[in-house]
Design goal:
Aspartate Aminotransferase, domain 1; Aspartate Aminotransferase, domain 2; globular
Length: about 425
């Protein structure tokens, strides 16, 4: 598409947007009484207006039914984890038996590491990206120490080449091959939180398997952002949160994917809880854990219904919009933003976009490395009504989310940002 740096062009694109009505399904924050430009869906998604309806239904059923709501609520609480499966499977490209909503992201990561990181004397290394989100860093470190492995020895953190900001796929594949005899696990954030780089999931997974290692992915910044095909790409496991692009509320329900090839492998070690026990016999309270089939057998505790209700409200919108349609708009929004930023006079003296320029290698986030006065610029755009994200020491993260952001939002940000530079 040939872009134009005008408000009229932005409004034209909004008029043509087949997803434009979804913006009305969300509560939009205000700054000084005016509607904000909200570009931090990569940290916390906006609240769907339907979330209150979904939660109120559960509160009403709780009030009216008490404990009987477990079986007689409009959405019986005993089976609440099942209600999100269809939407989640569509988002990650999986079978419904391979996905489940449960726990929080780091809890799920530890559960997956219990099953898929079982080091031996010869195979004990983990490969990940340097600067992974801290929840992943801490989980890797503690798991290595739990197995009496020095993280400095067992954890390989891949850095970009000198002068570059993102990892080259060939360098990832080479590192996997170089360590193939000692490698136990390869795990990346599918979309890197700081740079916004969308890693090549299929290629990394295939390389890990050739090396005799498992392949896992943290989808915190990928879920609801980019289309995924975890089943066909043969990924072993993945975990995610739902409060970013999935708009399910602060601290909302997380989830996990486990490929069906592992579903009946009851020899895999796992930490168990009663909600993962064979459902028809769960309430017999008998000794001897019998896991449910598929990823459901990794559940620990009964489902938090009120949080799950908000999750369902957002997933309903994703089912209506479709991740492919959202991705199409996302590419247009992000490319328009990139075009406008690069049209600023002498922009290279002020900032550099860290995020890959190839659309297939990024989601909807652009990370802007400020070369001077970064925090001052950020404070100015904040006062002007932009809700964005500052990452020390010098990066502004901007995420035009296709579910509720507009091309006019992008243009207004560009004008404010350009003025702040001056």
């Amino acid at each position: 598409m040939k872009y134009e740096p005008t408000l009229a062009f932005a409004r034209k694109l909004d008029t043509q947007d087949s997803l434009k009505t979804f913006r009305n399904q969300f509560h939009l924050p205000k700054v000084k009484g005016k509607q904000a430009i909200y570009f931090t869906g990569n940290s916390l998604g906006l609240q769907p207006k339907s979330a209150k309806v979904f939660i109120n239904q559960e509160l009403e059923d709780w009030a009216a039914l008490g404990v009987e709501g477990h079986t007689h609520a409009r959405r019986p609480w005993l089976y609440y984890h099942k209600f999100s499966k269809k939407a989640l499977a569509q988002l990650v490209g999986a079978k419904t038996s391979e996905v489940v909503s449960m726990n929080q992201l780091t809890v799920n990561l530890h559960l997956m590491l219990v099953s898929f990181y079982n080091p031996t004397k010869t195979r004990y290394k983990i490969i990940t990206e340097a600067g992974a989100f801290s929840s992943d860093q801490y989980a890797f470190e503690s798991q290595l120490k739990f197995h009496n492995i020095d993280p400095a020895v067992g954890l390989i953190e891949l850095k970009p080449r000198v002068g570059e900001f993102t990892l080259r796929t060939e360098d990832i594949l080479k590192a996997i091959d170089d360590n193939k005899n000692e490698l136990a696990l390869v795990m990346f954030g599918a979309v890197q939180y700081y740079t916004g780089q969308f890693f090549k999931v299929r290629e990394i997974t295939e390389a890990a398997h050739r090396a005799g290692a498992y392949a896992g992915f943290d989808l915190a910044h990928a879920m609801g952002n980019v289309p995924l095909q975890l089943h066909s790409e043969n990924v072993d496991f993945a975990i995610w949160c739902s409060y970013k692009y999935l708009n399910s509320g602060p601290g909302g329900m997380a989830g996990a994917f486990i490929h069906e090839k592992h579903a009946s492998n009851f020899k895999l070690p796992r930490f168990t809880g009663w909600w993962g026990h064979d459902e028809p016999n769960r309430f017999k309270m008998q000794k001897g854990f019998v896991p449910m089939k598929g990823v459901d057998g990794w559940q620990l505790s009964n489902y938090p219904v009120l949080s799950g209700a908000a999750h369902l409200a957002s997933l309903e919108l994703f089912e209506k919009a479709g991740i492919k349609n959202l991705r199409k708009k996302s590419i247009l929004l992000t490319c328009f933003l990139e075009y406008l930023l690069k049209s600023i006079d002498n922009h290279s003296q002020h900032f550099k976009i860290l995020t890959p320029g190839v659309v297939g290698e990024r989601g909807c986030q652009l990370s802007i490395l400020m070369k001077r006065d970064g925090k001052k610029v950020f404070n100015k755009i904040t006062k002007a009504g932009v809700i964005a994200d500052w990452r020390e020491p010098d990066v502004i993260r901007i995420a035009p989310v296709p579910m509720y952001n507009t091309f006019e939002d992008v243009f207004r940000f560009y004008e404010i940002f350009k003025q702040a530079l001056n």
